[in-house]
Specification:
The relative contact order is 0.11. Strand 8 and strand 9 form a beta hairpin. By secondary structure, the protein is an alpha+beta fold. Helices cover 33% and strands 23% of the residues. The longest helix is centred in the N-terminal third of the chain and has 16 residues. It has 17 helices and 18 strands. It folds into 3 domains: 120 residues, Uridine Diphospho-n-acetylenolpyruvylglucosamine Reductase, domain 2, CATH 3.30.43.10; 127 residues, Uridine Diphospho-n-acetylenolpyruvylglucosamine Reductase, domain 3 (2-Layer Sandwich), CATH 3.30.465; 219 residues, Vanillyl-alcohol Oxidase, Chain A, domain 3, CATH 3.40.462.20. The strands form 4 sheets. It has a 7-stranded antiparallel sheet.
Amino acid sequence: MSRNLQNRRSFLLRTGASLAALFAGTFNSSSVFAKSGLNYLSRIKGLIVDKTHPHYPLWRSSMSWYIFKPERFPDKIIRASSEQDVIHAINYARTSGQKVVVRSTGHNPARAVLRNDGLLLDLSQLREVEVDKESMTAWVQPGIKAEELLHITEQVGLAFPAAHTGIVGLGGYLLGGGLGWNMPEYGIACRSILAAEIITAQGKKVIASADENQELHWAIRGSGQGFFGAVVRYKLQLYPLHTSILLNRYVISLDNMEKAVEYFEKIGNAGDKRLETFIKVGRFYPSNLPEAKRDLVCTVGFFAFADSPAEAKQIMSPVVDSGISNISLLKKENLNISYKDLYRPPETDYSSPNRTVVENMWTDELGKTLLLLTEKMKNEPPTSPRSFLLGGWSFNSTFEDPSSCVQTAGRHYLSWYMIAEEEKHIDPNYKWMDESLELVMPFSKGHYINEIDTLRYPDQVQHCFSVKSWKKLATLRKKHDPDNVFHTFLGHT
């Protein structure tokens, strides 16, 4: 800082103090804070785009990967090029009285990264990964994507429960919990966060772990978009790589849906934790026809993660023995696949950017909820034939952990997605979702923060946490961000 600027700042401070009685604080430190904020802004080496920039509309649009954007406009978008940029951006926001929302890759379906006014802090370019094979750990920055991380860890014989969709960034995924590959064995991904480097609302870098700043370590394990800081690095527990993955896939007519549910329950009760089961209901068959002309069917994929072909077959045996193949229209069995094959996009991934409304629940009654929503899809088709249901049977092995704020309160996971081909489909999609929620809510045991529309359904946010955890989060926010520098959950103030 130059001597002239220091002298000017001293003059302003002295003048403000001497005239306080006359002007009742009108010329207090606000001008100093404004200049301080501009000083922080000038130190940022990354990209800064404000509303006056000719490319602002394009940059704003790129912050969320969904096609249909909400009418919310941040004052500035800052794409950080370093950890230091993050510190300067947060200091700028605090001293200029603006709020901050943090983005990794913009996959949150509520489009929570787009807020009115304030600062959108984009961390997508922070992408470094450091793997320690001996300790089976890795330090990762928030912009690295799921498939990229697994490719890196696979080279040294290690794995991580990364997102099922390969282009999802680790930052928001981990912060909101993280439902990833082989979750029945590994658990929800945030519980594999050993430590993190966090830039606080005061612009200070701290380490959070089980040994220091335990409150922050607890909060980053599942608080999602409501977290009151910016995580610039995570230390993750990695796991031995399973060398043999076996896939069995079936297509089942809705005429056999009730029988299929019986088989799912039987397999789930007998299955190994290394058997991951995904059930989808949508217009998937036959696949060579346009979606609107296809039949509404149930498809199910069983993934066995093992360390030898023989072990994989043993893990898959409850599926083979169940008789499910006898009620299938189409089946593909004993497919040997790799981790790379896990990221060959399924058909539902291609419609992801068209999602307008997303819902989910933890439940112990997945069969009942699947049957109810399937019947509704059959009798009252959504606006787009690409809308679908997705269930994870016996997906959850640990319901609650005192070292994490996240709550996974049911044995199974169910999510469903309304797709829009045109903007005029959005309102009918919300109506369909409102009705479907009323239909299945008696079977809900809670929600997953990364896949709910927190603006449309703000009451659901609290149900992503236990009562005790929800109160603790509020207390920690007041303690660590007393000036509300960071935006909280969309739909909450």
